[in-house]
Amino acid sequence: MVETKTSALDVEKLLSALKEKTKEPPPREPTIMALLASDKFREVISELEGNGYTTPEIASFISKQEGVTQSETTIALYLRQIKREAKGDSHAKPGATKPKTAKTRTAEKPAAKPDETKSDKPGETSTAKPAESPATAESNSGGKSFTNPAFRDRKSL
Questions:
Q1: I need a surface site. Which of 26, 73, 106, 150 has the fewest CB within 10 A?
Q2: How far apart are CA 59 and CA 78, in angstroms?
Q3: Partners of 118 in the beta sheet?
Q4: Mapping DSSP to helix (H, G, I), strand (E, B) and coil, where does residue 118 land?
Q5: Which of 65, 58, 68 is nearest to 29 (CA)?
Q6: If you ran DSSP here, which 8-state letter would residue 114 be given?
Q7: CA 55 → CA 59, 96, 107, distances in Å?
Q8: Where is pLDDT greater, at 2 or 102?
Q9: What is the DSSP string of 20-82?
Q10: C-alpha triplet 77, 81, 84: angle, nearest 5°
């Protein structure tokens, strides 16, 4: 039989050292975004913008500095995000509208027509014409109605 050596590891000593380490946070340098979001940098950046510099120009200047590893595009993205957060709208993209909620999505979808349900046999659908809603009847009575080209093309299939 092969004899295995037991380790000379002191478990209690290791456990106490780990507990000691949990009391202090790991040393980390602030990220470039955290630096740009700080009050000192925001003041200088707003001064630059006041003097006519654009966000891409500022981002280009920052990215060329020694020790900065982020690209111009990334820094420009950070600057825009910091501006949005300063305005109080941290998640919105410029020009974006509010996302649709489940209520608005279901309200926009027309209700399924009961006459267009599938029959008992697979591959067959009922051929009964659906009743016209008042809105459809009004639009059809006034002359030609607009048919969406995608719907029109699909009907021909």
A1: 26
A2: 9
A3: 125
A4: strand
A5: 68
A6: G
A7: 6, 20, 41
A8: 102
A9: HHHTSPPP-PPPHHHHHHSHHHHHHHHHHHHTT--HHHHHHHHHTSTT--S-HHHHHHHHHHH
A10: 145
